[in-house]
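ASSEMBLY PREDICTION REQUEST
Request ID: AP-0331
Submitted by: J.K., bench scientist
Number of chains: two
Total residues: 545
Priority: normal
Notes: Please return the full assembly, not individual chains.
Input sequences:
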Amino acid sequence: VNGAAAAPLPTIAEAAASIAGRTLTPIELVEQVIRRLESSEPVVHAYASVDPDAALAAAEEATREIATDGPRGPLHGIPVNLKDIFLTRDLPTAAGSKVLRGYRPDEDSAVAGRLKRAGAIVVGKTVTHEFAYGQNVVPTRNPWDLDRYCGGSSAGAGVSIAVGSALGAMGTDTGGSLRLPAAMNGVSALKPTFGRVSTAGVIPLSPTMDHAGPAARTVEDVSILLTEIAGFDPADPGASRRPVPRYAGELKGSIKGLRIGVDRDYYFSGVGEPLVLSAVEAAIEVLSGLGAELVEVNVPELEHATTVAETIVLAEAATVHRASVSEHADQYDPRTRLRLEVGQLILATDYLSAQRVRRQLQLSMRDTFRAKRLDALVGPTLGTLPILVADLPSMRPPSKSTLSLPWLRYTGPFNVTGQPALTVPCGEADGLPIAMQIAGRPWDEITVLKIGHAYQTATDWHKRIPLDIA
Amino acid sequence: MTNRGSTQESQPEREAPPSTPLGSLADHAGLPSGADTEQIAPLLANYTRRIRALAPRDVLAGGPAITFYASWDDE
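STATUS: Completed
Returned structure:
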């Protein structure tokens, strides 16, 4: 049942306030979330593995600690999950592949470790496409319409937030893998700047394109999660030493005067569905109504982003998996394997050409932001409504011409440039969610989050829930 | 369907030339037995054609360094 009802579970911000005010305990909250998980999982299959007993034990410990010493911070006692490519010491990590079936790492990924130190309760690991490559069919279903694709590769991340089987989710995004499932399930998510969040302990897909980031119901919650997981990590050679702001504390205030770019040639040129594009146009008008100044821009190099991304990801993923494919070829899904084998044949000269074009796109984007004095760039996160599972390219034999997924057009450019990009729900059509993407300057997550928060203060799309499973 | 498994069976001596140019490259790249070169070939050709069309002709384009970091700093 689709509807406009308020979310039945508290947001992270609300739960944290209640826990700090002693009107809610982590045990009560985790029990509530586990009930939601148990009722939704037979339908949506968001989780690859769960350990309710361990979650309840951690919640009891958090409840005791908070009663004595108060909460460590806003995540203390908050139920969260991680995509099944983040290594976790106390839960299996299979990355959606038979290759890793039964794998139990000895240590936590950096993000899992930071969440636990912040007192978050890890409920389970969420479903991913095999090794986050997006080629195979996952069992996870879109709760807005069970016949529809839920997005991926962080499939379970988006779905679990939508149905309330966690309050925060950790995903990864190499071409849109976190923003797309967030968009298709009507929740908020951020791909931070490359280097802002450590990817140490995340099974890599494409090390120069991979980003880890949070999903949650609201931008405020995304901000709380980002504050806890961001920061330098010597174990990640790409991690930045730049200081991490307290994002959630910076959200309030007007966006009046912010200059927001719109590239109509790229984002509204007829590639997307009219219903989707008009909903995003309306969302952009809301930003204008809040005082933002809309600026028409044109970055022609955006058209190159998908080709650049494909070449880089093909070659880097093949490098990551080379030895494993050689030893376990038959255990890979045939579609994943085919892509890895194609990647193994990409010449170094072509890979390096892609990296050079990537730099040109970065510089072009920088010059546009500077010349137009932009604070952000907005457009659709996805140009279409979620498609039927039966119509997925992965349900058919691979095309002779391409394996790329058309919906990466809108999200992929910011993996190429490394800029932060936020997705927020901004409409519905045929009972399915539509989302707007807000991208910013490198390291300027604050502005992106502030715009998203202002939008959610003025609208209620983020409060809608997809399926009455309470 | 051509695959490397059957190619190898018909050509037991590794020094013998493979049946297709891609088979040779697949051997060189170390693709596993069973890799389907008939499926791989058009995909590879498509990706390669598109990225080569974009490759900068100006050898100085983008500056001297190849970087994937997101910084826009001028230094």
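REVIEWER COMMENTS: The first strand of chain A starts at residue 47 and ends at 50.
SIGN-OFF: pending second reviewer
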